Amino acid sequence: MSEHTHIGPDGLEYSHSHGHKHQHTQTKAVLNRLSRAIGHLESVKKMVEDGRDCSEVLVQLAAVRSALNNTAKVILKDHVEHCLADAVDSGDMEAIEQLNRAIEQFMN
Questions:
Q1: How many angstroms separate the first and last alpha carbons of the chain?
Q2: How far apart, in whole angstroms, are the C-alpha atoms of residue 59 and residue 20?
Q3: How many CB atoms lie within 10 A of CB 23?
Q4: Which of helix, strand or coil describes residue 29?
Q5: How confident is the model at residue 82 (pLDDT cuts 50, 70, 90)?
Q6: Cα–Cα 20 to 30 A to 73, which of 79, 81, 94, 99?
Q7: pLDDT (tens digit, 9 = 90+) per residue, 21-76?
Q8: Is residue 17 a contact partner of residue 1, using CB atoms and an 8 Å limit?
Q9: Between these two residues, 62 and 80, which has the higher pLDDT value?
Q10: Burial class of residue 92, CB neighbours in 10 A (0-12, 13-18, 19+)
Q11: Its pTM surpasses 0.85
Q12: Is residue 40 within 8 Å of residue 63, measured between CB atoms?
């Protein structure tokens, strides 16, 4: 449970926590994807150490970036289907605001 505060319409600050626990059904898939991306990035690092052609390195970096973006999609989908659905059901507007901030940072 996370405790946080809200400013009510009357200007007073209210603290409370929500009883819902976030469910992440794709944790194993996310960890597997991250492990593969880390391995791929280690290979790219080795390419640079070995003085491989810049074009090859850039292509491989693009592949790593794509793998990370696809991992983020899995996390986002899981979050929307489970955590955000719970937040909406319980009226937790802070969770929605947090997701908006996270998406904004990810997109930059």
A1: 29
A2: 43
A3: 13
A4: helix
A5: confident
A6: 94
A7: 556 788 999 999 999 999 999 999 999 999 999 999 999 999 999 999 999 999 99
A8: yes
A9: 62
A10: buried
A11: no
A12: yes
pLDDT at residue number 16:
47
Tokens of 11: 């200007």
Cα 72 to Cα 50: distance, rounded to the nearest angstrom? 30
Tell me the residue type at 38.
Answer: I
Structural domains in the chain? Answer: 25-107 (1.20.58.1000)
d(CA 45, CA 37): 12
Question: How many Å apart are CA 24 and CA 66, to the nearest integer?
Answer: 22
| Residue 7 scores a pLDDT above 80 | no
Residue 33, amino acid: R
Sign of CA dihedral 23, 29, 31, 33: negative
Local structure of 71: helix, strand or coil: helix
